[in-house]
Amino acid sequence: LVHLKRDQYILQKKALHGAQFMYLTKRGYMYINSKLLKVKDEQPLYVQKRYHTLRKSISEHSFMNFMFIWHYILTNPKQITADTKIYEDSNMNQCKIPTYYAGRDVVVAPDTVILLPDPTSSIFQKALFVENDTGRETYKQIYQKLVEYAVLAENGLAKNKLNEFTLYFIVPTKKRLKQLFYNPTGITSFFASYNNTRQVKDIRARTIVSSFSNPKITIYVSAFNPDNPKNPYVFEKYPLVELLLKEKPEWKVYLP
């Protein structure tokens, strides 16, 4: 470890909420791919930040992206095959999912994308989309992301050759988790008969309820615990539709 830090293959940084972490530098990334993994493919399994337009500092957001990828690989080693693709949002060209609504192109941009082969199909894939919240995003912004994921579920699965997707929301504390997802003044308070984001307008409640009632679309939420790097997540299935119907029982007519 001392030699890796001395040669600047890895560096150490303190994140916003106090977590200490080490990150792989471009020098380290190039060394691992060329000398250790001997990668020749231009799009390796994990794509590290490398674009000149993205020379922002390594942040807690980058750390949370890496932690999810690292945790997923450690806990699901049998799912990591030659056909698995993993991207995070420093690679913007790959970490975005195109769809459409009302004749307009829409781009859903998760923080992390993991594409897994579907054993039941040689064409379609399973997708994991991760949204890492460091506490800076507003409730409305997260609500708007869910609206756009509903549009993706309704219109974009076949376009992207996806058979199903699982959506993970990760927040920095248990308190924010409760306030954001389970408080009546949290994200559920924004849903209305017609829903708008910067990309799409007038997304009906029918789309929200039917999309997230689809058994092939699942949402999980968890707080992030930096003090337990071996298991920093306690994911729980998020009953979005159930909570919406509790507040707006008249929407039950939209259930499939």
Walk me through what this model shows:
With 256 residues, the protein is an alpha+beta fold. Helix content is 29%, strand content 24%. It has helices at 2-6, 26-36, 60-75, 139-155, 174-182, 205-213, 240-247, and strands spanning 10-14, 20-24, 85-88, 97-101, 104-108, 112-117, 125-132, 162-171, 194-195, 203-204, 217-223, 236-237. It has a 6-stranded mixed sheet with strand order 3-6-7-8-11-12, with helices on both faces. β9 (194-195) and β10 form a beta hairpin. α4 packs across α6 (205-213). The model is unreliable at 43-58 (pLDDT under 50).
**Average pLDDT rating:** 85
Number of discrete helical segments: 7
Based on secondary structure, the structural category is alpha+beta
Spatial shape = globular
What gyration radius follows from the Cα positions, in whole Å?
A: 19 Å
Strand order of the largest sheet: 3-6-7-8-11-12
Describe the main β-sheet briefly. 6 strands, mixed
